[in-house]
Design goal:
The complex is a heterodimer of chains A (233) and B (373). Chain A is built from seven helices and 15 strands. Helix content of chain B is 61%, strand content 13%. Classes of the chains: A alpha/beta (233), B alpha+beta (373).
């Protein structure tokens, strides 16, 4: 089971720290980040994460208020430098309460707890795999190994582990399947994995994202605001 | 204007005469009221003619004693003691005591004479009247003395208690000051940031640790001193703001204007006067806005005062973002503790004024008497 995690924290470095620790731990995947409660709530609806790592003190509404409005799903883990919110966290039925600076083993234990609670509901979450036909055989490529899906005419092209694949599945289908796993449509013909974005280059109303392998992918004018929002830029 | 005094009920005011000491009060009353005639008898033991007459009159003299003493107590505790709460000077105090005694003797002699006539049936003869008068006066004086001694003891206890209260208040202020100088949340948040930076950008992590060390070295070291040079405080505040700027990124722009022409740098101030203002501006200002906050610290000489102003404003005032106002009054808040600390050091020569600053910010002004090194 791979937990899909949303991080809500107003400090970029605090989000960064959680991303580093989760990447090292390996059992979870950060699918989205938000810098305040309003964006956080929108992302809960949009990507339906399993777990929210939620800061308490933030501009606008605080994390405690946001958590109380969430209901039983997703599981909430608070991350804060303040010990005094722990009682409120209990009240909001949080799964855990992590103190900053976040310790790797405490975060791992919190994620284990979240995993156990989700497993108890009988749900199983496995990252999707993309069926690829070659001749009469069908192989499955893990979607999370792909940084970018690109539509070319009626096909969709992508690279996984250095091998280029061409499939017939339309980009819109892939978007529906992969949006909860941290993929974002940035152009009519481009779907990228947000955690693979290394930088954002803007020029006027349009721009490009730079992926961690150095390739640059154009962003459509229409989707630019939502891309910037998701990248918290 | 003594809050602690007004809040505390004066339950020991009456000391032995208070209902909490009813047993001891009773013993002392019996000793005073019955003892007075007996003591008188012992004093006049040489007077052979007087003594038998006296013991024969013990019931009536005791009645007189109880009457005068009781009358005095009643007058004293029901009227005079209440006036004593207004803390009159010693001459007035003595006059009040004497007046109470005089009134008590006058009233009680009237009551006692009537009681004796009513109980024993015959009007008092001249010898007995003289005896009753002596007993009455001695009794009321004895009771007055006891009451005065008791009052003095109670006063001493009260003063002691007030001194204890002042000591406790001083210790509490000291503790509050200690807590004000190291906000643990700031440290924890920074350590979290440093942890992220160690992986992503080691040189910046290193720079941040340097500044962080400077901030806490100053906070711990300056706390040991009564005064620091303003320049030291300004250096620590700069280090603090550099750290916060690294942590908050584009959300914070800051500037310190320290008036160079007026020896402001050489001025002596209590440690951590500017620091809590800046901390507050970060906590309630920059920390509560998504957009950029501009923070300006200005330190100027104004006549014989040193005026520090800390103001935060959103860089884009069009985006009206709620800012949690810093609480000014009361202790337990950074500004309240600062005001208390400055009041201890300078009395009413120092003041802290905070309020909303148009268009969408917050401004705190601290005025101190300028002391030069």
């Amino acid at each position: 089971m791979t937990l899909r995690v949303l991080i809500v924290d107003d400090e970029a470095f605090a989000r960064r720290r959680l991303i580093q620790l989760i990447a090292r731990d390996g059992r979870a995947l950060v699918v989205a980040e938000a810098a305040d409660a309003a964006d956080g709530e929108a992302l809960v609806r949009a990507v339906d994460p399993d777990v929210v790592l939620l800061d308490v003190r933030m501009p606008g509404r605080d994390g405690m208020t946001m958590a109380r409005g969430l209901g039983p799903r997703p599981a909430v883990i608070f991350t804060t430098a303040y010990a005094e919110f722990a009682v409120g966290a209990f009240d909001a039925e949080a799964i855990d309460y992590l103190m900053k600076p976040i310790a790797a083993d405490r975060l791992a234990r919190a994620l284990e707890r979240a995993e156990a609670r989700i497993a108890a509901t009988g749900a199983r979450f496995e990252p999707p795999r993309i069926p690829v036909r070659s001749g009469s055989a069908v192989s499955f490529v893990p979607a999370l190994a792909v940084a970018r899906f690109r539509s070319i005419d009626k096909y969709t092209a992508f690279v996984a582990d250095g091998v280029e694949h061409l499939i017939e599945q339309p980009l819109a289908d892939l978007e529906a399947l992969l949006a909860p796993w941290g993929f974002l449509r940035i152009h009519r013909s481009e779907l990228i994995q947000l955690s693979r974005v290394h930088g954002l280059h803007q020029s006027g109303a349009t721009g490009e994202v730079e992926l961690d392998d150095g390739q640059r992918v154009r962003i459509s004018k229409r989707l630019m605001p939502s891309v910037r929002r998701r990248l918290n830029r | 204007m003594n809050g602690a005094d007004a809040a505390r009920p004066e339950c020991e005011w009456h000391g032995l005469w208070h209902r909490h000491n009813i047993g001891a009060g009773l013993v002392i009353r019996v000793l005073a009221y019955v003892g007075t005639p007996v003591v008188l008898a012992v004093i006049f033991v040489g007077d052979r003619e007087f003594l038998p007459a006296f013991f024969g009159q013990l019931p009536s003299t005791t009645l007189v004693s109880v009457c005068t003493g009781g009358c005095f107590e009643l007058l004293y505790f029901q009227m005079w003691a209440r006036l004593l709460h207004r803390r009159p000077g010693w001459p007035l105090r003595i006059a009040g005591h004497l007046a109470t005694i005089a009134v008590a003797v006058a009233v009680s002699s009237f009551i006692a004479a009537h009681l004796i006539e009513w109980i024993w049936g015959d009007p008092a003869g001249p010898t007995r009247s003289k005896l009753h008068a002596q007993v009455g006066i001695v009794s009321v004086v004895t009771v007055a003395m006891l009451v005065t001694i008791d009052e003095m003891a109670a006063r001493a206890r009260r003063l002691e208690r007030r001194a204890d209260g002042a000591r406790v208040a001083a210790l509490r202020a000291e503790l509050a000051a200690l807590q004000a100088r190291t906000d643990p949340h700031f440290l924890f948040n920074c350590l979290n940031t440093v942890a992220a930076l160690i992986v992503d950008d080691p040189p910046v992590a290193e720079a941040m640790l340097d500044r962080l060390a400077a901030v806490f070295r100053y906070a711990l070291d300056a706390g040991m001193r009564a005064h620091v040079a303003l320049a030291e405080e300004v250096a620590a505040v700069s280090a603090y703001l550099e750290v916060e700027a690294m942590r908050l990124g584009s959300r914070l722009e800051w500037r310190i204007d320290c008036d160079p022409g007026a020896d402001a740098g050489r001025a002596l101030i209590p440690p951590l006067v500017v620091q809590p203002l800046v901390e507050n501006a970060i906590l309630h200002g920059a920390g509560q806005r998504r957009g950029t906050t501009r923070l300006v610290v200005s330190i100027r000489r104004r006549d014989r005062d040193l005026v520090t102003v800390v103001e935060d404003q959103p860089a884009d005032p069009g985006v009206q973002e709620a800012r949690v106002p810093a609480q000014v009054a009361g202790t337990g808040t950074a500004l309240g503790d600062l005001a208390a600390r400055l009041a201890l050091a300078y009395g009413d020569r120092a003041r802290v004024v905070a309020g909303a600053a148009p268009p969408a910010g917050w401004r705190v002004e601290v005025v101190l008497p300028a002391e030069l090194a």
